[in-house]
Amino acid sequence: MIIFRFLKCSLVFVFVLGSCVNTKNKTYPESLTTKFPYQYLSLHTRMDEIKSTDWLARHSEQGQTFEEYLQENPTLPTHKRNKIYLLPLGNLTQFDSQLVQITAEYLSVFFQSEIKTQIPLQNLKDTIPKNAQRIHHHQNQLHTKFILSHILEPHLPTDSWAYIALTPEDLYPALSWGFVFGEATLHNRVAVSSFHRHKKYVGNDVKNELSASEKTQKTRLRTLKTTTHEIGHILSMRHCTEFNCLMNGSNNQKEADSRPFFMCPVCVQKLNYGLKTNLKTRYEGLLIFFKKYHFKAEAKFCKKVLKSFKKGQT
Asked: What pTM did the predictor assign?
């Protein structure tokens, strides 16, 4: 079962780091050490050893350096395209509506961009044809490519740099796939993210021993991670293969949960280039957000990042 996938076929690149600097027995390319303080770099770890069930064991991906990213003519915000639009897709419970609101708030901080949440598109049985739905293991699923190409792309707001649907419905990208949590295009500015399995299967890996509040927090964190990951693809960012990173591909829920909540320095370079934002300002905003919603581990990481900025350039 696959978690993250984007539409456009991957190109094959050779990852060339150039000269490196070895500091305190940790080696980082000079392209990073000239951009970030060592204290910040040391918070990020290289990609773990690949297991047989991991994404990279089943999908041959070469990653994407910052230089390769620039060569791909990435899709970026402009003066006129400066907003993220969020479309709630499906019939929402009160919990779902709160999750959409929290996700919108988080995206505005993470991407430092204005968010426009649209009126939910409901009654999907009347909107999505039968050939773009299926029953899989007794679960109704919606075809991601129909959502991207028939619901989002034709109605793409002219002032949007990203248009993402957020849905409680389960998703599939092709008949041969079991499901996906999200899918995005690299150059068409649209994506879809599902929290169906984030909510339904939140206790499976711990024998349902989580409290109600813990399940809520885990559902929220998974949804924020998936949705942010997909918008990273909208910015033409491919899967990261160099560091443990938010932009890693994931082949199953266990692997997705093991991935960091934050982007690595290489992907942050891409993010900063595309959004023209300040890294320190982003983490200050994220710290406020995580404290507000009691995400203790994530708030602790933000504090470490902000502390690292006091000793070097941001």
From this structure: 0.88
